[in-house]
Design goal:
The structure is a homooctamer. In chain A, strand 4, helix 5 and strand 5 form a beta-alpha-beta unit. Chain A is globular. Chain A has a domain of about 100 residues: 3-Layer(aba) Sandwich (Rossmann fold). The mean pLDDT of chain A is about 95. With about 140 residues, chain A is α/β, with parallel strands linked by helices. Chain A has six helices and five strands, in the order βαβααβαβαβα. The interface between A and B is large, with 36 and 36 residues.
């Protein structure tokens, strides 16, 4: 049995590579958003052409990014959402809540000090952990006999 | 025909009173989270007793807050989520995304300058506006003949 | 038992008034889109302000129109969609198909000569009739003992 | 990961071949309606025998065409609906709206000048583009790392 | 608390009157198909005009009858389906199975000697009884304190 | 693309073999109920032991038969239900209606003279045909280019 | 806004009366299983007649009890399940898990010392408390402004 | 056709090995909870670190156990739940009821003398048997021709 895992969350460092490396012995297939931040911001204009202003540029980009997210999250069995101390990350919170509403089990990864602002979302998650190792352990446990 | 509207978002100022006042001639019933911030933070310990530390205190509070949210959002026909420039508001983003996943039409209210970090969530919303007057206009339009 | 009926379709003549008048003795409540065509086209700019060009103006208007449709169709027990020989009426076709997908019984009203282009949609409808009197008869039959 | 894409829309030119050719390096499998227009119109009588008149002939054909559509759209991960300036294309609009209601992400392809009559349907789509190249770019983006 | 009960099954005798009379002290509202058999058979031609032959006449009638059934069953909390020893009653079996698939609790009423041909449907029902008094007792039990 | 087809209906002759033979060049996998009639009737007592009387024997058998049907119909993309002029076939009608309620496209096969008693079920089906060849043609059409 | 609360759990003492008394100032309507234990055990034979042995007697009773539970839980907005230290209470656990699967928020009430055997079910609940007062406080919080 | 079977129930003896051995000639893939009881109890602290007391330790463990259950039950076509005469087994009852609510056919295995406390759950199951051999026979019957 193979599982597909959607890696929601910020795209400002290479945490997804760390997840993939640490989980390389598990039968997992990882998907997620475009991690190239500039490309993610520009994809709307790249496809739809120049937009009237930065708000419309953002609208255009988010249409394409949400197309990707909707297709890939639908294919997933589990969602991991990682929160850090930088950026607003409302998109991550939205993806995490969508996962819960779609009955996809959600693992939230966040540093301890972010607990308070994440508390209602953590409570909706199946489990909240503080680092990637713990998330991998939880995924690994699904396969153990 | 009466509609029930869930007012998601921050509880740090009295924006909900403004909504209710401005919509007082529409057949709308408003519900939402506990707006007394201290009570919202303490409700877990108030009901479940003292918790081992602040993380467990938060867990306890969020269980009761999410009970309220789940019951009231289920009763709602439309969800308004207001974002401001203070606080992390991850809970607001999560409630907004839950509304979309539950097929509740979502109106996002946010100042223009917050467009970029909210862009994917705005794109999922039925409509994004910049102030409460616009949100009320949109609700009013549902009833106009 | 009262039923709510959504009247989808063109807004270029007063066919909805005819439906309401002819059904006035049945326990039906009718809802539907904004019938003032100019207002329907302008509602986006009215609420969201001037848009960069006519496509963005249309986008803005359709967000508000779809908010109204989503709320009111969700409240409905039956959907009537009327097609005429003018205009493209793609929006009517889309509303009609949405009704079917939401398990709302659909009554299509269309002149006989439009059968061919509507054939797949007619086949999805619960019943297709040629005039408003027939649609009212079908609704009336639900209540007869 | 392979995706299945349903190509809704008119069957009067060979736009589907263009899509397949341009996407040949992506892991996509394309499905769609019968593209032989005469066969699509006659399939009802071919299977069910001669019908009393052209309306019943159309009814019979649409039963078989809708069987095909229902089976293949259910198997699809994404739907592309292309609109042109000829024909009524109500069936295309209906298929597009069904896709949205089934939570299949929808890409609408239409020439710019058709924006107004398609505006509510475009707003329901995940993204609206003007040509096939843009639709392929959007699909390609789902797979990019 | 009031409950709505759909009375599926044959329309060849007045068993529904017996149900209503015997349940008159319970807070129940009963709905069901057209009980005037001729009208049920002719309703298609009455609304849609003369049809080419008896099969098309039946098709037309069943469209209107199924419109009624779909609307009223959707409004129901419980479904009672009564089977007798006359007629094929495939329509009753279909309505009963639809109720189960829609998560409406189903009470089957049938004489003991019909158990064998109804066995799989009885097994899907919440309860199978032999007469109307037993069905009323089961409904009454829902309200007892 | 392969499709799985559930063959509902009577188990008193070998019509399923005819379907399989005639469809042998299509990418179809067929499933269905136990076709050995005695075994189908006795499977309850075979597994659960002797039952108090024939009604309980039937109950026991139908539990096992419905287990099989539920598992296999869930795996199916299309359902064919064949009706003949013998036996009550209420189980077939129930399986056919379950398929419709589960959004599985339904093909009804029945001799012309059975149209009247099957009329509401036929109307719920995607298509109704008179013989197996026609059903195979309809399935074949799904794959044609 | 009124809420309906299903009171699942043992029927061996009068805890439901305590709930109703303590919540009498809240806009709540309470429903639940038959609390007369003998009647609950005998209702199958009362309606369906004498059964062959005690297992069939139990089967008959549980059909009627589950009819009641299914109807009333479907009408409920919140479910409270109370566990005590006597009896197996598997039925209570099943009702509680059904509530969660139906997206009804669940409040588990149990003495502290029962935490271990209830741990997975508690984790699925929205909140777990130790006594009725706490459950009422949680319900009250939904209505507080 | 292969089926995946979730083996819910107690983890205090090796009944799952018996199931797997006896079903080794059937095209079945078995999944289920962690069977190492100590590991199941300790997995929360193993991943999340030491907890304040035994209740929080249990909470932590059940989060991880429920993650596993949710992922694997979602992948399953059938659920077997085995009850014995030891332990409270509320978790087993909850898993069994979840399966029913998710439309997964449920086979309950229990010794005859446990019928009374399991009666409502047995009634929700597709079939209740007394031993593993019977459960395997029922599964085998799904594949027989």
């Amino acid at each position: 049995m193979n599982l597909t895992v959607y890696l929601a969350g910020q795209i400002h460092d290479n945490w997804r590579s760390e997840v993939k490396e640490k989980a390389k012995n598990l039968p997992l297939h990882f998907v997620g958003p475009m991690e190239n931040h500039d490309r993610s911001d520009n994809i709307g204009e790249e496809i739809l052409g120049e937009q009237p202003n930065s708000i419309f540029k953002d609208d255009a980009a988010s249409k394409i990014n949400n197309l990707r997210t909707q297709v890939l999250m639908e294919k997933s069995d589990v969602v991991i959402a990682l929160f850090g101390d930088k950026y607003k990350q409302w998109n991550s919170a939205a993806d995490a809540a969508s996962a819960v509403a779609l009955n996809k089990p959600l693992i939230v990864v966040r540093p301890k000090e972010l607990h308070h602002p994440l508390k209602e979302l953590s409570e909706k998650a199946q489990v909240t952990v503080e680092n990637i190792d713990q998330a991998i352990q939880a995924l690994s446990y699904i396969f153990e006999e």
